[in-house]
Each structure stands twice: as structure tokens, then as C-alpha cells.
Amino acid sequence: MSIEGQRVIAIEEHYWDKEVAASFSRGAAIDKARPGLMERLFDYGELRLKEMDESGIDFQILSHGAPSTQRGDAETMVPLARRANDRLHDIVAVHPDRLSAFAALPTMDPKAAADELERCVTRLGFKGAMVHGPTNGVFLDQKRFWPIFERAQALDVPIYIHPANPMQAVVEAYFKDYLEDFPSLLQSGWGFTVETATHAIRLVLSGVFDAYPGLKIILGHMGESLPFSLWRINQSLSRPGNRSTSFSFRDIFCSHFWITTSGNFSNPALLCSVMELGVDRILFAVDYPMVSNQPAASWVPTIPLCKEDKVKLLNGNATRLLKL
Ligand code: MN
To answer: How many A from CA of 239 to the centre of ligand 1?
Structure first.
């Protein structure tokens, strides 16, 4: 294993729990459009490890795929998330040298979600949590969700904000005319990016990072385009007429966010991100099995960074942030 002699840790790598997957209805459509994907989502060992070996990926942080436990009612999702996290613990316990985990949280009950995060980190050895888009249509910047962030700060673990399908009103207004010919427009084609970048911007504006100055957030997909737009967002939001001309979106974003390379193996995008955030905040990820390991692995040798910086990207930053 390893690529160019370096240990490779990939931190946005998905699986589906059978009971959680039965609570949403993406399965049949995905199976038809992407042969082999369902098999990989439900593979917790043999095929996953074989494909890691073939591409030189040493270690995966497993997380449930979207929408995970962000849709539905608390009565169902609180105990379901607990069962799913217990099963995920059993999965990674078989291969502790190859796999670890991010928790699924029942965010519709923020106190229960905070408790489940604590249980997963302190009892199951998980490295943080992943949350998929708004919870039943509400973004996490709303104050009722802040107990989750308070607990994440107390535990010193990151929350990974991952995309899910955009809300129906957004689908109608922005995308529906093109979905028949380009269904991916709703997802990694653009819809995921818009929604997740908006989620991150709302978190910055909400003041949650003033309340919890140790809070750490991870974004995938090379920061969901935010590094490219950082100068303009920062300049605009500090113009007269906004809350304060000393408000710095850049300072908050660059002190609380880490980004990963999941599904975005672009050297121009990486170099922009390095220039805006610094290499210490960029972590390797594939987005397996939505994206296969091979394009990520073959991208690594082309990355125009010095060896020390590449090592940070491939394993050093993850080891520090996730305390591996
Ligand atoms: Mn993903």
C-alpha cells in the first residue's frame, strides 16, 4: 500500500447501513444508474479493502452516505442512529488498522445528537461526525442545533458537513428544467456544491464560532468552491451596510474550516485552496464508492507540491485533526 511511499488516509469514504438505507429511498435509482455502487456501499470488508489495496489507500474513515439520519422524526432516528453507530463500530473493529469512523447523528433532536456524538467518541472511538445537508429542511446554523456544536467543541472533534440532495423549492427554482437530460446537475454537477457552500456560509454568519471558538468543521469537494470565492465573499460582507465593516468572513473560515479533496482531483483547485487556506487545512479523501479510488490515486503523483506538503495532505493533517 501507500502512494509514492507515503501512507494514505482517506476521510470521506462511505458505506450504507441496511436499516438506515431502508429509511430513505435512493437505492433503486442509484442501482440502475451506477452498476456496482450498491454492492460497494453495502460492502464492509473484503471488496472495500481489496480496492483500497489496489490503489494504495491505507486507511479509510467510514461515514454513512447521504442523507444518513438527517431526514425523519426523532422517535425513529434517535434509536436508529444509535443502532447504526454500534454496527459501524463492529465493522471498523474487525480492521482497526485499516478503518475508523465518523458518527451518524440524529440531528432532529439536537440534545440526543450531542449525546450520541459523545457516546460514539468516548465509548466507540469514533473521530467526529458527518452530517448531510439540512435536517428536515433546516440548516444547522439555527440556534436549536448549537448543542451539537457545543459538544463537538468539548470533545475536540470535527463535524463534517456533507451534501445531500437540495430542498424541493431549490430543485424547482434552479434545476428542474435540466434534470431529465442531466440528473447529476442536482448532485455533484452543481446542486450539492450550492447547498453545502450555503450551509457553511450560514454557519459563519450565525455567530456559532464566536460561541464555540474551538469548533472545527470539515467540508469536502475542495471546500465546495468556497476557497475560489473567498476574496469576493469576504470583501462583500464587510462593505458598509452589512453588520460590521470589520467582519472578516476570511478570518472565521480560515480558522474553523478544514477541506478535503473528495471527488475533486484538480490541481488548479488544490493550488487555489493551498493559497487561500494553507496546506495544513487540506486533507486527502476520495468519496468512495461514489467515486472510485483509482482516479484519486493516479492524481496524487501529479500534485505539484513539495514532498513535505504532500505528506501533510495524504496523512499528516488527518493524523493531527482526527488524533489518529
Ligand atoms: Mn461523499
So the answer is: 35
Its domain, for residue 38, covers 9-322
Instruction: For 10-57, write each residue's pLDDT tens digit.
Output: 999 999 999 999 998 765 566 677 889 999 999 998 999 999 999 999
Asked if residue 149 is part of any domain, the answer here is yes
**Domain containing 33 — which CATH number?**
3.20.20.140
CA 217 – CA 317 distance, rounded (Å): 14
Cα of 8 vs centre of ligand 1, distance in Å, is: 18
Does the annotation mark 109 as catalytic? Answer: no
Q: Which of 115, 141, 287, 309 is catalytic?
A: 287
User: How many Å apart are CA 139 and CA 195, to the nearest integer?
Assistant: 10
Report if residue 1 sits inside a domain: no
CA distance 310 to 324: 18
Distance of CA 50 from the midpoint of ligand 1 (Å)? 20
Q: Does the residue 4 lie in any domain? A: no
Q: What is the pLDDT of residues 203-215, one digit of tens each?
A: 999 999 999 999 9
